[in-house]
């Protein structure tokens, strides 16, 4: 009689804990966003979103679907920021664009500078941050249904303290957006297969349409949906969530009367011989059960198409989505070589596996491994539930490995929350063990995750875990994990995406007032907007031994330049005087500094 109130109390406490974690996440990410300059991809996304809403044309940045850009633009309009009207913007909207011409990049820079970077970025980033918080909420709500409240709360802890998630949570890009709407769609689909009805089916279609409008790689989930629906049709659905059995089910013995009321013995009715009960998945009876779910998939797709047209503002060209899909990677350099572990070559098949192993906190990886074993071995979680938890991230991760440019762990962002769910399962398994060491280990791993987030604050984007330094430079391991060794392994948005110009300005004001710097920052936003006096360098300028001067070099090039054949390794050999935002390496090569 006392178990039910106790269970309700535990559920309430876990919900409160998850809510508190989401609030901490929002506060931490918002404060960090105020310190960060625009990253490489934000200006064109901001310009494109405003152009969509104010001109109803979709010529800017068509290689990404509109939803996340439109959310940012709605917020900008609420903040009084409008689409500029000048010769450049008129050319973008009405002019004849040459192949490869993308004026939205320069327009975005100008728009941000003209309206004030801090003001524009605050308004543009606010809805993206709310989308990231929505993901945390869905993670808890769905996790509670499918793996239980304790595991769901553990997943929220791992998500909200994940440096990669925190570093991307507020950016006006598509990476966290696709992860959030993928989780939202699967949450809707899970509730539909548990209790099929028209309302839940419509919600699935709405969520699927929104998902497809976040990033074109979302189409990778389409072949997975019929598999999940088929699994739900031919097998049990429910996992070990809170709503699952409160009492053990009665199962008749072989010679008892069958509970169905047929008057037959159980073995002659529902307890038929094993050969009859283990019918093929392709048996006519099971196929008849599966057909309604497959029709449901078609209905979801129809609703999703309507949502896509609505996000494109019911344009006169109904094929804008398809044409945009054909432009994927239009702003990427063709045959751009990949950098990994000090080497440069066309591709590394293991790139994204190692990116995940290096950039996720080690505690999260350990817990995810424990959770995977616990999930596979669990008899309380149905096969359907296991497929929901494992098949979508596998499809998204494999798709990125085969198709995506190898420039950042952000391309496997849709898979990360599933790792957090597995980690939550691992935490719950440890806490449920009676052995004292298991609970102590769980508490230690939780503390480790928190230290990973706080230790590198406010520079979460370039975070690397301790393994990055373990073999190369163990002495560089600190509260920020192995972030100092990141450029030894990866480049591009893994280490720097242009977000640290404001922090560079602060460093210069305190340590080099009035000095001009030699700047190599390949990610585009004009440093002059922040009042940084600089002479801009070309990568070739740093492939030789340096001349005297004060240098600021993006970690992207600290990684890449020494890897080219014949290039000088001075960027790695010479200790930097400072590292602004963990991503802009500052070298003082003046004679006075060298003599100190």
Strand content: under 5%
Unreliable runs: 242-252, 272-279
Major sheet details = 5 strands, mixed
- Largest beta sheet: strand ordering: 4-3-5-7-6
User: Taking Cα atoms only, what radius of gyration do you get, to the nearest Å?
Assistant: 26 Å
- Count of distinct structural domains: 2
The shape, in one word, is globular
Q: Helical amount among residues, as a percent range? A: 40-55%
By DSSP (H or I, 4+ residues per run), the number of helices equals: 24
How would you classify the helix and strand content by structural class? mainly alpha
Distance between the termini: 75 Å
What is the structure about, briefly put?
The chain has 596 residues and is mainly alpha-helical. It has helices at 3-33, 42-55, 67-78, 87-94, 104-115, 117-146, 149-160, 163-168, 175-194, 198-212, 224-234, 274-277, 284-311, 320-325, 351-359, 362-377, 383-403, 416-432, 436-455, 467-470, 501-511, 555-560, 570-573, 591-595; strands at residues 338-340, 343-345, 517-520, 534-536, 550-554, 578-580, 584-588. Residues 242-252 and 272-279 have low confidence and may be disordered.
């Amino acid at each position: 009689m006392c178990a039910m109130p106790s269970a309700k109390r535990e559920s309430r406490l876990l919900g409160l804990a998850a809510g508190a974690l989401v609030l901490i996440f929002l506060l931490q990410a918002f404060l960090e966003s105020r310190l960060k300059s625009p990253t490489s991809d934000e200006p064109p996304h901001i310009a494109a979103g405003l152009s969509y809403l104010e001109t109803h044309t979709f010529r800017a940045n068509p290689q990404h679907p509109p939803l996340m850009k439109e959310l940012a633009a709605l917020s900008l309009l609420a903040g009084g920021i409008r689409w500029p009207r000048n010769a450049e913007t008129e050319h973008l909207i009405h002019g004849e664009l040459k192949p490869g011409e993308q004026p939205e990049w320069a327009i975005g820079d100008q728009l941000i500078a003209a309206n004030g970077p801090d003001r524009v970025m605050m308004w543009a980033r606010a809805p993206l941050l709310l989308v990231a918080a929505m993901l945390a909420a869905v993670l808890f709500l769905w996790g509670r249904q499918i793996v239980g409240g304790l595991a769901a709360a553990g997943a929220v802890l791992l998500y909200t303290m994940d440096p990669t998630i925190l570093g991307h949570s507020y950016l006006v890009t598509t990476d966290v957006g696709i992860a959030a709407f993928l989780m939202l769609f699967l949450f809707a689909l899970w509730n539909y297969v548990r209790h099929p009805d028209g309302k839940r089916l419509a919600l699935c279609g709405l969520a699927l349409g929104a998902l497809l409008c976040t990033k074109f790689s979302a189409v990778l989930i389409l072949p997975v949906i019929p598999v999940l629906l088929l699994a739900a049709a031919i097998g049990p659905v429910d996992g070990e969530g809170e709503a699952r059995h409160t009492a053990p089910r009665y199962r008749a013995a072989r010679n008892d009367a069958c509970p169905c009321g047929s008057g037959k013995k159980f073995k002659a009715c529902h307890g038929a011989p094993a050969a009859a009960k283990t019918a093929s998945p392709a048996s006519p009876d099971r196929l008849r059960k599966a057909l309604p779910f497959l029709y449901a998939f078609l209905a979801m797709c129809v609703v999703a198409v309507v949502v896509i047209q609505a996000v494109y503002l019911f344009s006169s060209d109904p094929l804008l989505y398809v044409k945009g899909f054909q432009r994927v990677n239009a702003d990427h350099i063709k045959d751009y070589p990949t950098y990994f572990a000090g080497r440069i070559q066309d591709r590394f098949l293991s790139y994204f596996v190692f990116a995940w192993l290096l950039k996720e906190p080690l505690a999260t990886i350990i817990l995810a491994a424990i959770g995977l074993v616990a999930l596979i071995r669990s008899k309380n979680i149905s096969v359907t539930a296991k497929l929901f938890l494992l098949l979508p991230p596998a499809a998204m991760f494999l798709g990125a490995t085969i198709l995506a440019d190898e420039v950042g762990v952000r391309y496997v962002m849709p898979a990360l929350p599933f790792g957090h769910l597995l980690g939550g399962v691992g935490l719950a398994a440890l806490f449920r063990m009676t052995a004292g060491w298991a609970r102590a280990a769980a508490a230690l791993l939780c503390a480790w995750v928190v230290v990973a987030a706080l230790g590198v604050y406010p520079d979460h984007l370039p975070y690397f875990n301790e393994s990055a330094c373990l073999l190369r430079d163990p002495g560089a391991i600190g509260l920020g994990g192995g972030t100092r060794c990141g450029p030894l392994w990866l480049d591009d948005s893994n280490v720097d995406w242009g977000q640290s110009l404001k922090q560079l300005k602060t460093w210069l004001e305190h340590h080099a007032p009035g000095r001009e710097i030699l700047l190599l920052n390949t990610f585009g936003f004009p440093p002059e907007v922040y009042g940084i006096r600089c002479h801009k360098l070309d990568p070739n300028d740093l492939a030789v031994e340096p001349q005297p001067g004060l240098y600021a070099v993006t970690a992207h090039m600290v990684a890449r330049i020494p890897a080219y054949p014949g290039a000088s390794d001075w960027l790695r050999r010479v200790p930097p005087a400072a590292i602004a935002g963990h991503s802009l390496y500052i070298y003082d090569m003046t004679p006075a500094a060298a003599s100190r």
